[in-house]
Design goal:
The chain is an alpha/beta fold and 425 residues long. It has 19 helices and 6 strands. It has helices spanning 3-17, 34-48, 65-78, 96-105, 118-137, 146-160, 170-183, 187-197, 205-211, 222-235, 249-252, 257-275, 290-294, 304-310, 334-352, 362-374, 384-400, 407-410, 416-424; strands at residues 53-59, 82-87, 107-108, 241-246, 282-288, 326-329. Strands 3-2-4-5-1-6 form a 6-stranded mixed β-sheet, with helices on both faces. Helix 4 (96-105) runs parallel beside helix 10.
């Protein structure tokens, strides 16, 4: 075991111990429905060819909805996509501009997953243009050809972004300013350009003047900027852009009817634009719980224009298909608990360099998974994060107490997580 492997294992164990979703290496503990995973893979391949697409994830508490969102994002980045995962409870979602801000703040690539990667994407694209000019015309951004190379590169940027003409020349000018700032090692100028690209409301008048801005990004131009950034991502050599909106249930909980309808209308507009292929290379995922879709007063059902676009004919109600616009996730059952428990135990053993299999046999794990699920009957859904949190605690105690009989855990009248789950309902 090398240090990097142990570090990844620690990140996962520490996150699970606190009831959080790990931020990377999710596939090491993931249990996915093969049909759902195959459908997601098909959509990634589809958008990689220059198309746009969408899916909705529908899951009750305990279905692992957020886990799926992050795992899909991680998988897409490993396949060369940029990815933005947005928890909309962390920001405003009632206008195209606020939606754009959230997306840009959370854009990542495989080599940069801890902060916005827009600068990395820009530089990769601009470096590609620079190398092309060097190869075709022998122009280098140094020495005698520097001025001519910068002029040619500026024109090339304008040419590459000409299709987004509704932004006038502002977008091209800002990108050129960013590049020239890099050449001059003027970090403040580069930072100002990035702030504008992210629609940062704190852009000062001096920064606007330095950028030579003609207009700010607004509700009208935000969708155009989304398409422009998507184009830059692909021009930089990435496969496409995955955009995930999680916790959409926040919209359903808004008491103000006007605010709810504004949010649903933004999503409706995105669905229409996606169908019209206005975001080449983009795959959008919208995730929420059942009430978001089914509540006729506050949910998507209350907005007929959006509801009619994403629902499918109500035939064969006892059967589902991952190919539908809305993918329905099932909660944890005894089989899935058994499978994920084995993976978590392997990680715990690796991180703490011990052998739990002497006490935690497959037979014990089967009994444990049945114990967890039988405590709930058919009514209460199991929340994976709470179950896994308790499993980690169980392993911690077993590791540090060699004389502890694991069967003592099964002899408790009810799992400790039952009270925690009921409290969180």
């Amino acid at each position: 075991m090398n240090n990097e492997e142990r570090l990844i294992g620690q990140e996962i164990i520490y996150a699970l111990r606190s009831g959080a979703v790990p931020q990377r290496a999710l596939q090491r503990i993931a249990i996915f429905n093969p049909a759902i995973w195959s459908e997601i893979e098909d959509h990634l391949l589809y958008v990689k060819q220059g198309h746009s697409s969408f899916k909705f994830l529908y899951g009750e508490y305990g279905s692992g909805k957020t886990f799926h969102c992050y795992a899909i994002a991680e998988n897409s980045m490993q396949k060369g996509f940029a990815a933005s995962v947005i928890d909309i409870s962390q920001g405003s979602f009632n206008s195209p501009l606020s939606m754009y801000r959230l997306i840009m703040q959370n854009i990542h690539v495989n080599e940069k997953q801890t902060a916005s990667a827009i600068s990395d994407i820009l530089e990769k694209w601009l470096f590609g243009i620079q190398k092309k000019l060097e190869k075709l015309d022998g122009l280098k951004i140094s020495g005698a050809t520097k001025d001519k190379a910068l002029e040619r590169l500026g024109k090339e940027i304008e040419k590459e972004l000409a299709e987004f003409s509704l932004m006038d020349i502002t977008l091209a000018n800002v990108v050129k300013t960013y590049f020239f700032g890099k050449v001059k090692r003027d970090e403040s100028l580069c930072e100002a350009a990035l702030k504008w690209l992210k629609a940062n409301a704190n852009l000062t008048n001096d920064e606007k003047k330095a950028l030579g801005l003609k207009k700010d990004i607004n509700d009208e131009t935000a969708p155009i900027m989304m398409a422009a950034v998507a184009s830059i991502i692909r021009k930089a050599g990435y496969s496409g852009w995955l955009v995930v909106f999680d916790e959409l249930t926040v919209i359903q909980k808004l008491a103000n009817l006007k605010q709810r309808n504004e949010c649903y209308e933004i999503i409706r507009k995105y669905i229409d634009d996606i169908a019209g292929q206005k975001y080449p290379g983009c795959f959008f995922i919208f995730a929420g719980i059942a009430k978001l879709y089914d509540d006729p007063k506050f949910g998507i059902k209350s907005h007929p224009a959006l509801y009619e676009r994403i629902t499918t004919p109500k035939i064969l109600p006892d059967f589902t298909s991952a190919k539908e616009n809305i993918i329905r996730l099932k909660g944890f059952d005894a089989e899935s608990i058994l499978a994920v428990s084995k993976k978590v135990i392997q990680l715990h053993a690796m991180v703490y360099d011990w052998n739990p299999t002497a006490k935690v046999s497959d037979a014990f794990l089967k009994q444990l998974s049945e114990y967890m699920t039988s405590s709930f009957g058919e009514i209460i859904k199991i929340k994976p994060r709470i179950v896994l949190k308790e499993l980690i605690s169980f392993l911690d105690k077993l590791h540090e107490n060699p004389d502890l009989d694991p069967n003592v855990y099964l002899e408790e009248k009810e799992p400790a997580f039952l009270a925690e789950m009921e409290a969180s309902q």
